[in-house]
Every structure is written in C-alpha cells, then in structure tokens.
C-alpha cells in the first residue's frame, strides 16, 4: 500500500498486540522530559571503507523535497557526503525499482527523507524494494514518528538501521494532547460550535435582509447555561496514560502537579524508574484494565501493534467508570471506532477527542455526528461531545525543523561509526559481512 506521507504522528513502532511501550524503542541521547534517561546503542559494524586511492565520500540518497530549515547542518552534511536527490518522477515506484536495479545512484550508504510530506512516492518499503538496496546501505533516516510504511524488521536483517524522528514531534504532540484533554473536561466543541455554527446555518438558509438570529442566540444561551453545569476543572482528576515514552512523559509534566494539578497514572510494558515516577508524580498500573478503572481521562499515546489489532475495544472500554473521557493522539488503528461510538452512546465514555482515525482521511460518520450540534449522539442532553482533528498533533514548524535536523544527525552519526540517535530496529539488526 502506497503511503506518500509518513505522518508526523508519534508512535508507530510495531510491537506485540495490546502491548504499549515507550515512544522510542531506543531512548534518545538527550531526553526532553524531566529526569529522562540516556541510552547508548552499540554499533555492530565499522564505518564505510575508503575507496581506492584514498577517502571517498559516501553517497546519501535523498528522497523528497530539499532541506530548508537547517542550512548550517546541511552544509556540513553535504561536505561529508555526496548527496544525490532523485526527481519526483524517479521516485514513483516503477521507475524507482528500475533505478535500483540499474544501480543508477551507485553504491549509496544511506537513505535520507527530511520531510514527512514528500519522499514516499515509491510506496511501502517492503521486500520488493529492500531486496534491491545495495549492500553498502547502513542507515535509513526519515522524518516522522510513524514508520509503518517501512519493513524495519527486514531492514534490520539487511544490517540497515532505521531511524525515525519521533523525538522531534514529542513536544508538539504533547501540547496538542493537552488541548484535547482540556476539551473533554470543558466541552470545547460544543462551546465553539454554539458560538458560530448557528449563525452560519442561518446565513445559508436566509437572505441577509431577513435573517433571524433567534436560533443562534438560543444556541449561545443554552450552551452558556448547560455547558457550564457539565464542565469540570482537570485538577484532582486522574489522567491515565497508555504508553509512557517521550510523549506520555511530556503530557504528564504539562498536566501534573506542577501545572494543572492532575494525578498521573500510566500503563506501559516497561515500568519507569522510581526517580522518574517521583519527578512526574506518576503511578504505575500493571494492566490496562487497572488503568482504565482508575482513570477519569484516558489518553492513548502508544505505538501501533504489529498485527494491526485495536487496543481500545468494547472489552477495554467496559472497564471504564461511566463518564470517563478518552483522547487518541497515537494511531487510529489502535481504536475500534464502532466500539467507541457505542461507549459514547451509552455514556460509558462521557467525551472524546480524536486526532487520528482508523480510515484516514475518512472520518467515522457516527463520530462526526457526535461532534455536531444537531442533537445526534447526545448523552444527558450534551451535544458536541467529540472533538475531531485532522492528524494535526505533531504538525508544527518546529517539528519539521527537528525532523530535518535529526535525520541528518542520525546519518552523520552512523556513517562515522558512532551510535545512532533515534534507532528503532537495533534489536533486529544483523552485522554487515
């Protein structure tokens, strides 16, 4: 399946089904969270050999748009390597395969994709593509946190380190998650819609001279009275984080005792250190069921499973207390949306906010209905209980700057025989012969 955009969403490391884990299988060299850990991944092969007659610059295959945010790093990068950038036409799958067979770009040693919006024209990096790569390739560094478009296991078996850039998106995603969490407590879709949507509908159905703003005024007044009675301060409520990697930790830091005063709980296959738990005021729960039962708002911030099965289902939702809130800034495939709709209809889930969707760019029509003000999907008379966004969480200029910089730094490190900064498949890596 072709995926021309490797979305800037946080987690996409395939792991066993129903097994949340940290944002990065290999922790970053420098953590962006309080008391974050530092880890060094051992290299399993030496730097590229020198060519005949002296040193020869390694070739880097640059797929996608030119870099534009980090000129100084790119100047250093271009001095170290011979950078070849195929045209958009050459990146189309059929032509790309032909070029690899012809060794059109020589024995390149790295693949560089600095933007998540371009460079994926060849589609999924499966066996058909990976098997055609020269034996000289040592590292594939890409923008974006998600990499379900690449077979990282197969790359590892070829001795190729795959590096993502999820670390660069962590702060943006965490900030967005804060807004969505607050939305579930304060019913922001209803508040915003009641202030604007009735006016727009009146304007569309009436001439400007005879428009009656009574429906708009009524919607405003009802929201002012009723949303107030249904809203709550986040302080003192339990925020349950499914996954406690870079993003989960930043959400905890932003909403915990030092700021919004929420009580932080988390579930992860890897329990964090006592010092980190103490710094973030986080309580560990050993099972998803226990976390769901304890939480007032559940946030999904864990990678997708390798088998594609959802983690949030009727079973897991059934452990929630009635009225619990739900936020997804991870992957749409992790949620059975029909089960979520049913939980919203019965009031098991009181409010939800989803940045990612199971069938992007299509959004579940039932969820759209619940996000509206026409009374559809109401629970206790509350319309607009669902906030829906367009996979925007990681999308900031600062994220793109970080994607570009981190991708170059990963290649520079690996090709100099140093540790990769954000590898995701070191546990699958086989040494080059």
From TrEMBL:
The lineage of its organism: Eukaryota, Fungi, Dikarya, Ascomycota, Pezizomycotina. Residues 125-425 form the D-isomer specific 2-hydroxyacid dehydrogenase catalytic domain. It comes from Diplogelasinospora grovesii. Residues 224-370 form the D-isomer specific 2-hydroxyacid dehydrogenase NAD-binding domain. It comes from the Eukaryota. Pfam families: 2-Hacid_dh, 2-Hacid_dh_C. Keywords: Oxidoreductase. Belongs to the D-isomer specific 2-hydroxyacid dehydrogenase family. The keyword Oxidoreductase applies. Residues 1-53 are annotated as: Disordered. One of its GO terms (cellular component) is cytosol. This is D-isomer specific 2-hydroxyacid dehydrogenase. InterPro entries: D-isomer_2-hydroxyacid_DH, D-isomer_2_OHA_DH_cat_dom, D-isomer_DH_CS, D-isomer_DH_NAD-bd, NAD(P)-bd_dom_sf.
């Amino acid at each position: 399946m072709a995926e021309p955009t490797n979305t800037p969403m946080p987690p996409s490391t395939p792991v066993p089904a129903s097994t949340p884990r940290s944002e990065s299988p290999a922790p970053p060299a420098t953590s962006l969270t309080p008391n974050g850990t530092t880890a060094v991944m051992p290299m399993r092969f030496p730097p590229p050999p020198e060519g005949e007659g002296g040193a020869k610059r390694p070739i880097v295959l640059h797929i996608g748009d030119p870099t534009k945010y980090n000129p100084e790093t790119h100047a250093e990068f271009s001095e170290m390597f011979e950078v070849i950038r195929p045209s958009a036409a050459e990146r189309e799958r059929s032509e790309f395969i032909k070029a690899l067979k012809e060794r059109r770009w020589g024995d390149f040693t790295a693949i560089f994709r600095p933007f998540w919006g371009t460079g994926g024209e060849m589609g999924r990096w499966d066996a058909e593509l990976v098997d055609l790569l020269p034996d000289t390739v040592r590292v594939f560094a890409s923008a974006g946190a998600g990499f379900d478009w690449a077979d990282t296991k197969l790359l590892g078996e070829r001795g190729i380190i795959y590096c993502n850039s999820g670390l660069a998106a962590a702060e943006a995603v965490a900030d967005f998650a804060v807004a969505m969490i607050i939305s579930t407590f304060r019913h922001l879709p209803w508040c915003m819609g009641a202030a604007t949507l009735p006016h727009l509908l009146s304007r569309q159905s009436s001439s400007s001279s005879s428009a009656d703003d009574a429906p708009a005024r009524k919607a405003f007044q009802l929201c002012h009275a009723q949303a107030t009675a249904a809203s709550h301060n986040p302080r003192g409520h339990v925020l349950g984080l499914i996954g406690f990697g870079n993003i989960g930790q930043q959400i905890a830091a932003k909403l915990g005792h030092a700021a919004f005063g929420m009580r932080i709980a988390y579930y992860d296959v890897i329990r964090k250190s006592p010092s980190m738990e103490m710094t973030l005021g986080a309580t560990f729960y050993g099972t998803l069921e226990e976390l769901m039962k304890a939480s007032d708002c559940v946030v999904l911030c864990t990678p997708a499973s390798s088998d594609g099965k959802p983690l949030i289902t009727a079973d897991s939702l059934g452990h929630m207390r009635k009225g619990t809130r739900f936020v997804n800034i991870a992957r749409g495939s992790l949620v059975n949306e029909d089960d979520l709709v049913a939980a919203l209809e019965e009031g098991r889930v009181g409010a939800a906010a989803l940045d990612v969707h199971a069938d992007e760019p299509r959004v579940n029509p039932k969820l759209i209905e619940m996000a509206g003000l026409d009374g559809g999907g109401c629970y206790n008379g509350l319309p607009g209980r669902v906030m829906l966004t367009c996979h925007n969480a990681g999308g900031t200029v600062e994220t793109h700057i970080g994607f570009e910089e981190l991708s170059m730094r990963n290649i520079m490190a690996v090709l100099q025989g140093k540790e990769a900064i954000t590898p995701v498949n070191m546990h699958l890596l086989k040494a080059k012969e």
